Amino acid sequence: xxxxxxxxxxxxxxxxxxxxxxxxxxxxxxxxxxxxxxxILIPGCGSAHEAKALMNMGFNQVWLIDxxxxxxxxxxxxxxxxxxxxLICEDFFHWKEGDFDIILExxxxxxxxxxxxxxxxxxxxxxxxxxxxxxxxLFNREFEGGPPFGGHEAxxxxxxxxxxxxxxxxxxxxxxxxxxxxxxxxxxxxxD
Length: 192
Ligand SMILES: C[S@@+](CC[C@H](N)C(=O)[O-])C[C@H]1O[C@@H](n2cnc3c(N)ncnc32)[C@H](O)[C@@H]1O
Known about the structure:
seven-stranded mixed sheet
């Protein structure tokens, strides 16, 4: 989707995806990561409720990127203590930074047009260190129109298996109630 689309959504406050709290599945997955200086990226971070929670957990290398100036400006105001050079307003697919240990996915994959999914998997692979982890949640259901653009486990698996080993790939047990039984949580390890 174009940048203008997302700016309009923020300006008109049509942000139904925003949980208003750190994502429970992402927080559960992050409890499995013990390296506090791991370089972590949240692409399409939106309001980035997870950023503060991760800082409180002791993670000190969190990076946020979103294409929307509105979203990034809100984070800047809400989290003045967050390092400015780790808060990026750019198109994720054109941004050059890499070497991440962990990339966190929540409603970014479903926000991009499905024709870009192959590029998503390839770009995630490029931005991770060898052995790096892509983890988070994906919708395991269809939607009318989009975004969000839905899909199912089997088609996602085909996209990711070229680039990643599957560590965790199952129905998410800790989704927020409106998303119960419609999310898959996953941990994928970058293939060399
Ligand atoms: C559905 S929202 C999800 C926001 C956040 N992940 C959440 O769960 O609350 C999708 C986000 O991705 C951002 N986005 C869409 N395309 C992008 C791109 N190419 N590069 C960076 N951010 C993008 C949008 O501005 C929006 O904030």
